[in-house]
Amino acid sequence: MVSNNTSVVALLHGPDRPGLVARVAGWIFERGGNIVHADQHSDADAGIFFQRIEWLPSANGAAADEADFAAYARTLGMAVRVAASTRRPRLVVFVSKFDHCFHDLVLRWKAGELAGDLVAIVSNHPDLGAAARGYGLPFHVIPVAAATKPADEARQLELLRELGAELVVLARYMQVLSADFLEKFGRPVINIHHSFLPAFAGGKPYHQAAARGVKLIGATAHYATRDLDEGPIIQQDVARVTHRHSVDDLVRKGRDLEKTVLAQAVRWHLENRVLVYGNKTVVFD
Amino acid sequence: MVSNNTSVVALLHGPDRPGLVARVAGWIFERGGNIVHADQHSDADAGIFFQRIEWLPSANGAAADEADFAAYARTLGMAVRVAASTRRPRLVVFVSKFDHCFHDLVLRWKAGELAGDLVAIVSNHPDLGAAARGYGLPFHVIPVAAATKPADEARQLELLRELGAELVVLARYMQVLSADFLEKFGRPVINIHHSFLPAFAGGKPYHQAAARGVKLIGATAHYATRDLDEGPIIQQDVARVTHRHSVDDLVRKGRDLEKTVLAQAVRWHLENRVLVYGNKTVVFD
Amino acid sequence: MVSNNTSVVALLHGPDRPGLVARVAGWIFERGGNIVHADQHSDADAGIFFQRIEWLPSANGAAADEADFAAYARTLGMAVRVAASTRRPRLVVFVSKFDHCFHDLVLRWKAGELAGDLVAIVSNHPDLGAAARGYGLPFHVIPVAAATKPADEARQLELLRELGAELVVLARYMQVLSADFLEKFGRPVINIHHSFLPAFAGGKPYHQAAARGVKLIGATAHYATRDLDEGPIIQQDVARVTHRHSVDDLVRKGRDLEKTVLAQAVRWHLENRVLVYGNKTVVFD
Amino acid sequence: MVSNNTSVVALLHGPDRPGLVARVAGWIFERGGNIVHADQHSDADAGIFFQRIEWLPSANGAAADEADFAAYARTLGMAVRVAASTRRPRLVVFVSKFDHCFHDLVLRWKAGELAGDLVAIVSNHPDLGAAARGYGLPFHVIPVAAATKPADEARQLELLRELGAELVVLARYMQVLSADFLEKFGRPVINIHHSFLPAFAGGKPYHQAAARGVKLIGATAHYATRDLDEGPIIQQDVARVTHRHSVDDLVRKGRDLEKTVLAQAVRWHLENRVLVYGNKTVVFD
């Protein structure tokens, strides 16, 4: 149960059928709740209903019972996530040596743009330690090597458990997380890929882009899955380039794309605006 | 009442209060209707609730009665417009000599992009007559001169009445419609202004833009009101320009902006996606 | 030789070395020509110099001799194309049934945006015949079938020879031109692909995009080569899409991208702004 | 004179006449220099020639003499600025309490994106002192009050002289610099205005934008002049907003615009890519 001046956000999806909007709204209204936002979408081809609904519970809190609402939504055949809007997920950022997404996320978090608690920075290199500590953030170095990767990932998982991590953000972290890691962590991991996926998956995408002679470069934030660069896309953006731009220029311009695209994906995720189904996302922005 | 495989769209707005989503959805559900889209917004500062809701009526059509729904919405304090999605407003396009928005609108209409019936072209010049007739469209020339403007506008109004016009689109029509005309017509008029309003209101905006040395030029589609270039904005877009672009280049690039911005505004209006309140719009896209 | 109030445009490229800008400008200046635009680029990695230079010849026309200039440029080791700015290449547009790029190109040509002569429309279907003839354009139907493709292409080539075609534009022409056709034609062919290449090469790219759940769709204008969808890219652009957009919406939004991207590529080509080297382009815009 | 592996950049403008490109390139070539970039533009209406030219001097440095080149350019009637590409102007950033542009500029400078030396932060408030010192940057507080403004500005000018400031960047500095200050400083001052100028000049532009109901918000970087918000525009950009965005959302989205627009303007200025003439700029990007 949440305090009276806190809203509740629910994300629902399941088989579409008549009356879903009315039933959900009715449940809230009957308990004295006041809906402040509601956004729904039906995928006519797939026959799936999606909804993000946010409401202010009544003074007596009857409509604020997250577990009750979730139970009701399940009687409608819906998969559901419910959270108080004040519930701030614990966020851990993984970095390597590139620092632009790291600084950007930390500064946005300090500016109050991210509805979560940034609890630690984890890296396979010591380079960004001083900067992290300068921000007052715990910094953990866990080196990763091909030969010792299973043990290294076990240490990462142990750390995430200790930290109570509910979201991992890969801010240009230069190691691939194994399928085993993702399964054992069991929580969302958001990655930034420095190309407009599915173009230029894999390594050195700016070099690939320069070699192909594209006129736009891009960046893609997506949930990490066992299939590298194939996870559900949350946000993408592009910037125009010309023959005057060297690979170094693409890298520089790309940094701006990577920062804003990753930050927007993380912000949306933390505000419970992203629903994953199949290999796609519905973003209620 | 509409046939069973036709959806109904309602646009509502009025003072916000608890239960509006639930009541509206409940009214539809109780009559066997199935909501296929619903989008609502609350302007917290102004305390106004906005909703666009679209539903499939039941087999017996009970939820399809537009007048009944409108009456119910009014009991909730809402201003309301309701229409069957198959209801195609009668659209009249005003032109002068520029033909790019004219061709663009007609071709989009022929391609099925516009949910209305384009019934005639009206112009103060004969120039586009052959092109209009080539498209099979009636073309009416009503010259307008400063000295005879009241009489000229009276002829335009008479024609619009005969045509049953429900929307007028000013496709680079080079005359200002008087406040008197707008009041007597009493239906929406959409205009395209060739700048990013409120920058460069008034005449020759591309020349103004070149003189000011801006790095982006724009176009703005808005409802015409008695205050020139001050009406509620429906859509805007911009394009990048550099010192290499002459005024002629701005005009050429601007044509592309004007076409797409005007077409999108008209499309949204015809799909009942635009709600006007005060001097602003809510666009449910 | 060109008349005195006509500018000359040269496109050069070759191994970079000191003095190229000075020598080229000096050659023109010594003959009384006045450079009105000059744009050069050096690809430092590849060691290649690129230049687009435009000048007004002197009253006696000495600097207007295109063959003389080309000969001089070759002594500098440059590959070169020279043309009077009034020289309008003969342009043939290939279409199938989609008409949006067709109308767009024709209307831009009529508006004076394209520095070439649109001499005919060629199609494998009769559908757009009436529209082409309505524009006063010759329309040639040459059906193409898998079994008879070599013969069909031979007829196309024969027609292009008769028409004196110097550029073919594939305006959503739904047949692949064979490597043999491209070689025998020996002139540039510009194609519009309805995706952000290299993403979604091949068929039904909007369906591919919807299946992958991308947040931006794109269009790519490129020179056709024997490797399908692999030719040098001239221009690309993207538009934002969300989960609310069905494949039909992607197709509709994509039409606008296809039109503007293809038209811009054709315009640049006709103004001698595009240099191809390897599998890339330099666009002097 | 510069070392042999340093390029020289010159910005020229003056009355257009035949032979300028050839003469400038010839001067460099005769002294053994190798032009690596050259970009010129003629404003046909104003009859003005603009050029940015960059060259590698010869081994003996003859073409590297900046003063000699400047003298030669002046014999051609050109106003000219010449600088070795390694010449790093001394940059001072003015801030108040907003920190987003401050962090952004400092981090880009540390990442090597800015071709100048950031020598100090000046503020009318102490708030950002700890952050500045955390970056290892001198931080000077000079309070400014209406009653004491002439004296306050005198202190600022004295400090800028001591610092050898060659460029001042107003990174959301919330005081207007007087015409007297600008004249006495005599060096460029770049400001970021949080709107798409000339729309919403003056105070609280995001509130103005929300009140007008625009569909895009913008930011504008310009040289500060005695006419507030009227100086030559260097760069502008916009972002899309909808009715769902509150003023707070506009402010948040605007921060991203302000950061990138200001940083790009500063980067271009420091790379000698910006030429001012009248109230406009030519940006050789």
- What would you report as the Rg of chain A, rounded to the nearest angstrom? 21 Å
Oligomerization: homotetramer
Please identify the top-level CATH class of the largest domain in chain A. Answer: Alpha Beta
The secondary structure category of chain A is alpha/beta
| CATH architecture assignment of the largest domain in chain A | 3-Layer(aba) Sandwich
Broad shape of chain A? globular
Report on the structure:
- Four copies of one chain form a homotetramer.
- By secondary structure, chain A is an alpha/beta fold.
- Chain A folds into two domains: 8-84, Alpha-Beta Plaits (2-Layer Sandwich), CATH 3.30.70.260; 90-283, Formyl transferase, N-terminal domain (Rossmann fold, 3-Layer(aba) Sandwich).
- The first copy, chain A, contains eight helices and 13 strands.
- Chain A has helices at residues 20-30, 66-75, 100-110, 129-134, 149-163, 179-185, 205-212, 247-270, and strands at 8-15, 34-43, 48-56, 79-84, 90-95, 117-123, 139-141, 167-170, 189-193, 216-223, 233-240, 274-277, 280-283.
- In chain A, the strands form three sheets. Chain A has a seven-stranded mixed beta sheet with strand order 7-6-5-8-9-10-11, with helices on both faces. In chain A, strands 2-3-1-4 form a four-stranded antiparallel beta sheet, covered by helices on one side. The first copy, chain A, has a two-stranded antiparallel sheet with strand order 12-13.
- In chain A, strand 6, helix 4 (129-134) and strand 7 (139-141) form a beta-alpha-beta unit.
- In chain A, helix 3 packs parallel to helix 8 (247-270).
- The longest helix of chain A has 24 residues, at 247-270.
- The radius of gyration of chain A is 21 Å and the shape is globular.
- Chain A starts with 7 loop residues before the first strand and ends with a strand.
- The model of chain A has no long low-confidence stretch (mean pLDDT 93).
- Chains in contact: A-B, A-C, A-D, B-C, B-D, C-D.
- The A-D interface holds A 99-100, 103, 107, 111, 113, 134, 252, 255-256, 260 and D 99-100, 103, 107, 111, 113, 134, 252, 255-256, 260.
